[in-house]
Amino acid sequence: MDKIRAKKAKIAVVGDLMIDHYIWGECERISPEAPVQVLEVSKESNVLGGAGNVINNLTALDAEVSVYTVLGEDANAALAERLLREAGANCDAVIRQEKRVTTRKSRVIASNQQIIRFDDESREDISLGSQYALLTDLQKNIFSCDAVLLSDYGKGVLTPTLTRDIISLAKAHDKPVLVDPKGTDYGKYEGATLLTPNKKEASLATGIELSDQDTLREAGFKLKNELSLTYGIITLSEEGIAIFNDGMHIIPTVAREVYDVTGAGDTVLASLGIAMASGLDITEACEFANKAAAIVVAKVGSATATLNEIEEYEHSLNKGQAESKIKDFTQIKRIAKRLRAQGRKIIFTNGCFDILHRGHASYLQQAKALGDFLIVGLNSDESITRLKGESRPINDLEDRAFLLAALESVDYVVPFTEDTPYELIKRVMPDVLVKGADYEGKEVVGSDIAKEVKLISFVEGKSTSSIIGKISGNSC
């Protein structure tokens, strides 16, 4: 996640752009002219579809996107370009072709039920002139992009010749090229980094019925080897993603609820692309794509997932994984900002937590009960030595952080090297700052930043010093 945020990848998307047009209304009477329902229209909406949904997913993930497509000389083309600009995409390489019809799919929705769809489009291959113009534009910009995504909806933009030329261009400049394929003949995608067919598409393309692990393995390696792909990929819907590299490895799904799978394939392509462009390996990229898809299928309609949503989802999945809860200053500042935007109540406390004991556990449980998220600032080894002497700490920072993070009451642990956590508190900006009851009448560091300060009593007789004293007095 941090690699993706730091990279802010530049992605080129080439493919069939379309507009998804929705007409919404209610049907409460039958036409006197014919035995058909009459729709009373309440609203209309237009959103980017096809490759446009890949673009929406990429911009939601903070990628810089350049669009390479061919539209007609019509009103729908102007609408598509406006929607692209509103999405934050660069559409300087969008080509207009005379007499071509920009694809628009119009869906009539009555009482939340689709009753008919009608399409305006051209499906023949784009002209040789348009192919040359697209490839020329991509050649000019290939140096500045980090990955190329091909979104093929079979509407004529990704012709066999153009597709092969784009893959050759990307490979020559060591850029990953990822493809969402269409049809049953995948020959034009030969040499790509990977394709993202689902089980049905892979079965049709290979002629292998995918009924078990053996046939899945056979189809995956057939695609990889016959098309000279760097990695074989088959998406498995609720089962996850299968990777075919040295062997077959299935990355299981992490979806909890599935409401609508519309556009999930576009999410997988976009998230795989941005992950690989940011330097993640294929396994990490598939894990990231699984999480993005899990968020999208829990929403209704063609949806997107943001980095913040994925980060929050990761945290919910990793509640029991201590390492994932240990953050640095930059990470916790971003997390705290997201939590505040969501209206979550942030609690902050700090300490050495040298030998974790019952008193600590009770204190942290009480602190967590004051809000939604508990962030614990943890003194570094050096700062503990300065504060408590050369004999401390007993346990090093890595061990102390792990044990703290393993507690259910603790959401995040952030080490700090200063004598006080003031700089850390400035980044967290907590709602509640918690300290022990021994601070009664004393100034609490960070009280000028937090909205309120709460003092919590310690468990009688439970302290690190008493434990150390007990051990020293009973050594054998």
From TrEMBL:
Residues annotated as binding ATP: N198, K199, K200, E201
Locate the region Cytidylyltransferase: 348-476
Write down the chemical reaction(s) this protein catalyses.
D-glycero-beta-D-manno-heptose 7-phosphate + ATP = D-glycero-beta-D-manno-heptose 1,7-bisphosphate + ADP + H(+); D-glycero-beta-D-manno-heptose 1-phosphate + ATP + H(+) = ADP-D-glycero-beta-D-manno-heptose + diphosphate
Swiss-Prot/TrEMBL GO biological process terms: ADP-L-glycero-beta-D-manno-heptose biosynthetic process
The Carbohydrate kinase PfkB domain is annotated at 9-304
What is an example of a GO molecular function annotated in this UniProt entry? heptose 7-phosphate kinase activity
What EC number(s) are associated with this protein in UniProt? 2.7.1.167, 2.7.7.70
Q: Which residues form the Cytidyltransferase-like domain?
A: 348-440
Q: What are the UniProt keywords, alphabetically?
A: ATP-binding, Carbohydrate metabolism, Kinase, Multifunctional enzyme, Nucleotide-binding, Nucleotidyltransferase, Transferase
Against Pfam families, the record matches this protein to: CTP_transf_like (PF01467), PfkB (PF00294)
Give the matching Gene3D superfamilies.
3.40.1190.20, HUPs
Tell me which family the UniProt entry assigns to this protein: In the C-terminal section; belongs to the cytidylyltransferase family. In the N-terminal section; belongs to the carbohydrate kinase PfkB family.
Function of the molecule: Catalyzes the ADP transfer from ATP to D-glycero-beta-D-manno-heptose 1-phosphate, yielding ADP-D-glycero-beta-D-manno-heptose.
Matching entries from PANTHER family are given as: BIFUNCTIONAL PROTEIN HLDE
* Protein name, UniProt field: Bifunctional protein HldE
Which organism does this record belong to?
A: Sulfurovum lithotrophicum
